[in-house]
Amino acid sequence: MDTIFSSASNSQKSSIKVIRVSGNNAKKIPKIFSFKPTKPRVASLRKIYDLKNNLIDNALIIYFPGPKSVTGEDIIEFHIHGSTYIEKKIYDTMAKTKNFRIAERGEFTKRAFLNGIIDLTQAEGLNDLINSDTESQFKLSMSQYEGALFKKICSWRDEIIYLLSKLEALIDFSDEDLPKEIYDDFHTRVTKILNEMKRSIKDSNYGKRVKDGFVITLLGRPNVGKSSLINFLSDKKVAIVTDEAGTTRDILEVMMDFEGFPVILNDTAGIRKAKTEVEKIGVKRALQKAEESDLILILSDNEDFSYPEFKSKVKKIFVHTKADLKKTLNKNIHNISVKKDIGINDLIKKIVNHLNLMVPKESALLTQKRHVNAVEKAIDALNDLLLIDINICPELASEDLRIAAKEIGNITNVIDVEDILDDIFNRFCIGK
């Protein structure tokens, strides 16, 4: 296998850059760059030279012998001065050396997986950790990287394997009916796993929201202050604000961080009887977006908080705008004024309180579509199992357990489907 190399830091100029090398030939680095070998895990200052013995840089070199390294292979890191020219010289020197090549996207992490350092859920958690922008994203990805989901998946699979072994042992005595207590225990254990899996499917929506953002849609009649509130919260003039009604026709999205929660605020067309076809489409889209939201803010600058009926039971917060002119005394309605900065912080707290209610008790969440698909297939197999009389058809029950175990195992350790591995690791940046 080739020895790979890449920058593990920013590609722009900086004070320090890190270049990582991983593979069986990493030990040859001192010879290639003409410097004295270093002790394992000791940062050592070395002058490094190109193949023509021209000085490249005075750099810190650290050697991490495998298998106790981040990839499970021998690793050498160059901590160089952050010149793009120095980086290029090091790249050129290694590229001219046999069995050395630049790493592909996510290849360092892929090797860590193939060498058993991490499982697939930890690899996905690591990528989410790198891309986290908010506290909730950080907490979820760190939990996954630390192995919370891996442990949950393993506990399910271990229980299924245990049931499979018990069932197959009983097949040898298939001429006899199982004692009722054994049958009941088997049924109870399967039902327990099923309930846990179904709860994990339900909770996976939270994991998706943490990654992509909680959707909050602002609804109200034209000119009630939706765009002004969006602009105030985002501190940007993302929406056009004028005295003319109906200026917002399409949905405007703004990504924000509300006390650690990633939030997508949607500014929408004013809800009224449309005067043009374009406005009609805008109103329709506004209502569709509200239907798909995690929270709706119903805005009004008077006492009219009427709104269309929604199929879904989306949480709604009623917001009275322009409270600097007149406040409502209704305790179920929140008063704000963008002009005077009244009630904005309290509104944010109210939103955050609602988002906190959505946080599941379970920290091990399914965060990828493939996780959900695998668990759904396992649920189908276990549901089929409960329809079988294991006294009559224990072989069929065993097959359902095997299917469930295989689907669950695929979440942490897909090693026979190269397309899935490529899809996972190609999401990483170069050098990771």
Structure, explained:
The model has no long low-confidence stretch (mean pLDDT 87). The protein is 43% helix and 17% strand. It is flat, with a radius of gyration of 29 Å. The protein has helices spanning 29-32, 84-95, 107-114, 120-130, 135-145, 148-171, 180-212, 226-234, 277-291, 344-357, 369-386, 394-413, 418-425; strands spanning 3-7, 16-22, 44-49, 55-64, 75-81, 100-102, 214-220, 252-258, 261-267, 295-300, 315-320, 333-335. Helix 6 (148-171) runs antiparallel to helix 7 (180-212), helix 6 runs antiparallel to helix 12 and helix 7 packs antiparallel against helix 11. It folds into two domains: 3-103, Probable tRNA modification gtpase trme, domain 1 (Gyrase A, domain 2, 2-Layer Sandwich); 118-432, P-loop containing nucleotide triphosphate hydrolases (Rossmann fold, 3-Layer(aba) Sandwich), CATH 3.40.50. The strands form two sheets. The chain has a six-stranded mixed β-sheet with strand order 3-4-5-2-1-6. By secondary structure, the protein is α/β, with parallel strands linked by helices. The protein has 13 helices and twelve strands.
Number of domains: 2
> Cα distance, first to last residue?
18 Å
DSSP E strands, number: 12
Radius of gyration (Å):
29 Å
SSE order, one letter for each helix or strand: EEHEEEHEHHHHHEHEEHEEEHHHH
| Overall mean pLDDT | 87
